[in-house]
């Protein structure tokens, strides 16, 4: 009970501060469970015994309270990919801002989806845990007073696609620690399930597959998230068009695709109309891209789209992928074609294009260069601009709050360094309301996707070769899509722009789990020079966890995870019911 006492105090304050905005409460027990998505029993990470985890169905400006009970045998953090946590990096769920939740402990996240709409997902951010599951969807709906640029669909379907290994995440982690490659994945899951048996020689009998049931003539919104470890996937639905309408919080110009490449960490929304004759069920396919397809045939996810009047099971060959096994020009042209709908509102009634990013003077330019893995001090590491990030024991934001020196350095280079690669905790130093241009240069041989926490950025350009200042002549300065995760093709660059309107420490990382784990990340430190703590930035939460140099400030919490006591979880549920009642009173309901 003591563990949740601070939450009650926080709730009263939050209710007073956000009395006009509704609350959404979630009580999660994060545990291991046994599943057999590819026909072999293995340990996965589940939330409330669900794999994948539950979808959070929210609306713009909702206040979100998530009580997380860590019933794993290792530390845990949950990060919320694409949720901006306006001026509140304390809730971001990464090591630069928050101490991990110890095994058996609970911690409560409290944040607002301020001025956001769209399709996002959450996942555990530590030590390759996402490769074992723990992910789920975040749907942020428009408020009723805001019109959307398409008719209301007849249904809303969330679909998680991603490569998958039969080895558990601790085994994968050890492989990386030992300097080994993860190798080819064992398959692709769709909503945590293996492939439909479209080919008897490729797919074993008895594997559970995903079936999506639909009504003829209806139109459904599919929210598709690539939650895998490292593989770009081509997504398609047999004989159906995919009408792209939104990506990671921005409405796009509506355009039809027969297939679309979805890279690791990316999310898209499509409208799909059930306009076929239902002579049989239809394949839903996610297959590996930019690989030798004859060798990677097993890395294909297959689900079933089933009309209510279907006349039989799906059979025959899968719909063809793009015919460019190694040529990435098709994929880059796809990405370039995705444009923001500048005339429609999103979270607010004013058009998305009313912020004219192309006319703003750039304050700082950073070129972040990725190279193939290197050996540093005898260990295999990955780098950005010659620096392999080493997370300190004390979170960066916490170190700043308590004026702890030498935890990190503010010397991340604006351009890649030419000397030997180094391991250090180097951070990008910037200022509140600066306008940044960041160029991601990928000199590796595989696609990397890059994500920035706390912000949506405009994707203004991408091309092959080495970026130079002359490359700016190709930038799209009007309707570049605004999103939080972008692909960077091998031997190519992608340029983004962002307005630093949210103080704090914000993680910049690759979403590819292996290269992230080996050091390819940094943080942007955004400080208000006028001393904006408690003015432009939210104060630290009362339930803050302490670790590293501040571990002596942490009060002990008796382990009460479901692995040690089932009754404790029931007690937490009871306390949250009490909490809801108290909040309802505070809000005047």
Helix fraction?
10-25%
Secondary structure category: mainly beta
Q: Note the total helix count.
A: 6
Q: What kind of sheet is the major sheet?
A: 6 strands, mixed
Sheet with the most strands: spatial strand order: 10-9-12-17-14-15
**Radius of gyration over all CA atoms, rounded:** 23 Å
Mean pLDDT: 92
Q: Separation of termini?
A: 25 Å
Structure in words:
With 589 residues, this protein is mostly beta strands. Helices cover 11% and strands 33% of the residues. It has 6 helices and 33 strands. The protein has helices spanning 5-17, 169-177, 329-337, 396-401, 513-517, 566-586, and strands at residues 23-35, 42-47, 56-59, 63-70, 78-81, 106-112, 118-124, 136-141, 155-164, 187-190, 211-214, 219-226, 233-237, 242-247, 250-257, 260-262, 267-273, 282-288, 300-307, 364-370, 374-376, 379-381, 387-389, 422-424, 428-431, 435-442, 448-452, 457-464, 482-483, 485-488, 492-499, 504-510, 521-527. The strands form 8 sheets. The protein has a 6-stranded mixed beta sheet with strand order 10-9-12-17-14-15, with no helix packed on it. A hairpin with a 2-residue loop joins strand 21 (374-376) and strand 22 (379-381). Helix 1 (5-17) packs parallel to helix 6 (566-586). The two termini are 25 Å apart. Residues 1-18, 565-578 and 584-589 have low confidence and may be disordered.
């Amino acid at each position: 009970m003591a563990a949740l006492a601070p939450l009650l105090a926080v709730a009263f304050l939050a209710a007073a501060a956000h009395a006009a905005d509704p609350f959404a409460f979630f009580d999660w027990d994060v545990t291991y469970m046994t599943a057999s998505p590819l026909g072999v029993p293995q340990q996965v990470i589940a939330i409330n015994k669900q794999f994948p985890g539950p979808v959070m169905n929210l609306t713009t400006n909702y206040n979100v309270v998530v009580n997380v009970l860590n019933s794993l045998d290792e530390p845990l953090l949950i990060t919320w990919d694409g949720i901006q946590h306006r001026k509140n990096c304390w809730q971001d769920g990464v090591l630069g801002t928050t101490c991990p939740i110890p095994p058996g402990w609970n911690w409560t996240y409290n944040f607002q989806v301020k001025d956001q709409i769209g399709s996002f997902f959450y996942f555990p951010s530590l030590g390759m845990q996402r490769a074992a599951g723990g992910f789920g969807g975040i749907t942020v709906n428009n408020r009723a007073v805001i019109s959307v640029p398409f008719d209301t669909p007849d249904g809303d379907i969330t679909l998680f696609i991603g490569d998958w290994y039969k080895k558990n995440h601790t085994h994968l982690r050890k492989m990386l620690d030992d300097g080994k490659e993860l190798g080819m994945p064992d398959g692709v899951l769709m909503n945590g399930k293996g492939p439909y048996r479209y080919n008897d020689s490729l797919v074993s009998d008895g594997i559970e597959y995903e079936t999506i049931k639909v009504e003829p003539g209806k139109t459904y919104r599919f929210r598709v998230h690539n939650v895998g470890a490292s593989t770009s996937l081509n997504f398609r639905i047999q004989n159906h068009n995919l009408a792209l309408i939104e990506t990671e919080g921005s409405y796009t110009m509506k355009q039809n695709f027969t297939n679309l490449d979805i890279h690791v960490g990316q999310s898209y929304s499509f409208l799909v109309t059930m306009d076929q004759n239902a002579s049989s069920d239809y394949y839903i396919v996610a297959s590996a891209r930019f690989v030798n397809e004859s060798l990677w045939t097993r890395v294909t996810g297959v689900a079933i789209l089933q009309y209510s009047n279907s006349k039989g099971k799906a059979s025959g060959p899968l719909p063809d992928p793009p015919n460019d096994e190694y040529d990435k020009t098709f994929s880059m042209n796809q990405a370039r074609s995705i444009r923001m709908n500048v005339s429609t509102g999103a979270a607010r009634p004013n058009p998305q294009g009313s912020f004219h990013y192309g006319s703003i003077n750039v304050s700082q330019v950073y070129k972040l260069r990725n190279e193939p893995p290197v050996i540093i001090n005898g260990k295999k590491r990955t780098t950005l601009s010659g620096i392999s990030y080493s997370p300190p024991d004390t979170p960066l934001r916490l170190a700043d709050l308590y004026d702890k020196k030498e935890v990190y350095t503010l010397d991340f280079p604006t351009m890649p360094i030419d000397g030997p690669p180094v391991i250090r905790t180097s951070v990008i130093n910037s200022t509140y309301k600066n306008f940044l241009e960041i160029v991601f240069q990928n000199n590796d041989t595989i696609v990397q996707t890059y994500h920035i926490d706390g912000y949506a950025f405009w994707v203004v350009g991408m091309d092959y070769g080495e970026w130079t200042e002359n490359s700016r002549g190709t930038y799209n300065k009007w309707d570049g899509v605004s999103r939080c995760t972008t692909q960077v093709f091998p031997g190519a660059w992608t340029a983004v722009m962002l307005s630093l309107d949210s103080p704090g420490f914000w993680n910049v990382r690759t979403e590819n789990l292996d290269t992230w784990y080996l050091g390819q990340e940094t943080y942007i430190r955004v400080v208000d020079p006028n001393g904006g703590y408690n003015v432009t930035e939210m104060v630290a939460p009362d339930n803050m966890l302490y670790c590293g140099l501040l571990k002596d400030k942490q009060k002990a919490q008796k382990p009460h995870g479901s692995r040690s006591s089932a009754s404790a979880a029931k007690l937490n549920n009871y306390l949250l019911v009490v909490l809801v009642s108290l909040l309802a009173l505070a809000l005047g309901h």
